[in-house]
C-alpha cells in the first residue's frame, strides 16, 4: 500500500485541528446561499444556522463536522478525540439541528446547498449512524430533522432534473450523487436508493468519450469525468463497469505509465484558484474508487495507481493550514482520501 494511504494519529490530529479551528469561527463568512425572506433573516450566521455557521460557508462547516466524526471514530484513543467530541457536542444538539431544519425547510430555500451541501449533510449523518457510540446515537437522532428535509428536497429535485450538471465545482451532480447514494445504502433507505440508482442510469450509462482533454477548468475541485466514473462503478458489476469505462475514457494507458498530470495552482491564497489543490485530492480518491471496481487483472490498474499516487502526493502537500482559504476545507478532502471512505461503496 503506498505511503500516502497511511494515516496515523499524529496526521489525524493535524487534520482535525483544521476543522477545530473553523467550525466555531463565524467570520469571514460567505452567505451566497442565504436567501432573505424578510427582515428577520438579517441576522448573523450563528443565529440563522446555529450548528453549521463556521468554516466560511455552510457546506464547509458540515463536512468539517464529518471529518471530526470520522477521525474520532477511527482514532478513539488519540488526544484529538476528546477535543473533537466536545466540539461536536456543542453544535450537534437537538435544538440547533431543529433550527437548521427550520431554516432549510423554507420554500424560498428549495435550492439551498443543492446538491453539494446536502450531500455532505447526508454523509455526516451516515458517519454518525455507523458509529457504535452512545453520544453518537444522540447526535444521530438530532440530525434526523435536517436529514429529512434534505432527502425530501432531493426526492423532489431529481425527477425534475432533465440533465446532469457537469461542472467541476459545487453544482456537479456526479460527486454529490456518490455521497448521497452511499448514505441511502448505509441508512437502508431502499426507496430513496432506487430513485438515485435510476437517476444515475438515466444520466450516465449511455455516456461515452468524456472530454478529459478539457480538464481541468481553472477553478475546478472536482473532475467531471472521473467523478462520473467513480459514481457509475457504484451501480455496475465489475465486468460491466470495465466495459463501460473503456468507452467512457479510452485514453487510460495499459503500459503502467502515469496518466493525468496533477494540477498546479498558481495562487493558493485565492479562494477560487486554490480549488485546484482539492482537485488533486478528489482525483486521487476517484481513481482509487475506479481501481476497486475493475477486475484484478485489468491492464489499466498500474497506470491508474501511479496517477492516483501522484495526485495524492501533490494534494496532501498543499494541506498545510497556512491559508484559511484552503485550510477550512482541504482537510476534509485529505481525510476522505486517506481513510478510503468511498471505497466500500
Order of helices and strands: HHHHHHHHHHHHHHH
User: Are there runs of 5+ residues with pLDDT below 50, and where?
Assistant: none
- Structural class per helix/strand content? mainly alpha
Distance between the termini: 20 Å
Number of helices: 15
Q: Percent helix among the residues?
A: 55-70%
Sheet having the most strands: none
pLDDT averaged over residues: 95
Shape: globular
Strand content: under 5%
Q: Radius of gyration, Cα only, in angstroms? A: 19 Å
Number of strands: 0
Architecture overview:
With 345 residues, this protein is an all-alpha fold. The chain contains 15 helices and no strands. The protein has helices spanning 9-20, 45-48, 58-74, 79-91, 94-105, 116-129, 134-157, 173-187, 190-204, 224-232, 238-248, 275-293, 301-317, 324-327, 330-338. Helix 12 runs antiparallel to helix 13. It is globular, with a radius of gyration of 19 Å. The model has no long low-confidence stretch (mean pLDDT 95).
Amino acid at each position: 500500500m503506498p505511503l500516502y494511504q497511511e494515516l496515523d494519529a499524529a496526521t489525524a490530529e493535524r487534520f482535525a485541528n483544521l476543522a477545530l479551528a473553523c467550525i466555531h469561527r463565524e467570520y469571514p463568512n460567505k452567505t451566497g446561499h442565504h436567501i432573505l425572506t424578510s427582515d428577520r433573516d438579517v441576522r448573523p450566521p450563528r443565529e440563522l444556522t446555529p450548528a453549521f455557521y463556521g468554516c466560511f460557508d455552510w457546506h464547509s462547516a458540515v463536512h468539517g463536522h464529518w471529518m471530526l466524526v470520522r477521525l474520532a471514530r477511527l482514532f478513539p484513543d488519540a488526544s484529538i478525540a476528546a477535543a473533537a467530541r466536545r466540539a461536536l457536542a456543542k453544535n450537534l444538539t437537538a435544538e440547533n439541528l431543529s433550527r437548521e431544519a427550520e431554516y432549510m425547510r423554507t420554500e424560498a430555500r428549495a435550492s439551498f446547498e443543492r446538491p453539494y451541501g446536502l450531500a455532505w449533510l447526508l454523509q455526516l449523518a451516515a458517519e454518525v449512524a455507523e458509529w457504535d457510540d452512545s453520544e453518537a446515537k444522540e447526535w444521530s437522532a438530532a440530525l434526523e430533522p435536517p436529514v429529512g428535509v434534505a432527502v425530501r428536497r432531493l426526492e423532489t429535485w431529481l425527477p425534475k432534473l432533465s440533465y446532469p450538471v457537469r461542472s467541476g465545482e459545487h453544482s456537479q451532480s456526479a460527486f454529490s450523487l456518490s455521497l448521497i447514494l452511499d448514505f441511502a445504502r448505509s441508512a437502508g433507505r431502499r426507496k430513496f436508493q432506487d430513485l438515485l440508482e435510476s437517476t444515475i442510469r438515466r444520466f450516465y450509462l449511455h455516456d461515452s468519450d468524456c472530454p478529459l482533454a478539457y480538464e481541468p477548468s481553472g477553478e475546478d475541485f472536482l473532475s467531471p469525468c472521473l467523478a462520473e466514473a467513480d459514481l457509475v462503478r457504484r451501480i455496475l458489476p465489475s465486468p460491466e463497469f470495465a466495459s463501460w469505462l473503456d468507452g467512457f475514457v479510452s485514453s487510460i494507458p495499459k503500459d503502467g505509465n502515469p496518466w493525468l498530470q496533477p494540477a498546479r495552482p498558481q495562487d493558493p491564497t485565492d479562494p477560487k484558484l486554490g480549488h485546484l489543490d482539492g482537485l488533486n485530492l478528489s482525483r486521487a480518491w476517484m481513481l482509487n474508487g475506479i481501481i476497486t471496481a475493475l477486475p484484478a487483472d485489468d491492464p489499466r490498474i498500474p497506470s491508474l495507481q501511479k496517477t492516483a499516487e501522484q495526485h495524492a502526493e501533490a494534494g496532501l502537500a498543499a494541506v498545510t493550514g497556512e491559508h484559511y482559504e484552503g485550510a477550512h476545507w482541504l482537510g476534509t478532502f485529505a481525510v476522505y482520501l486517506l481513510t478510503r471512505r468511498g471505497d466500500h461503496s
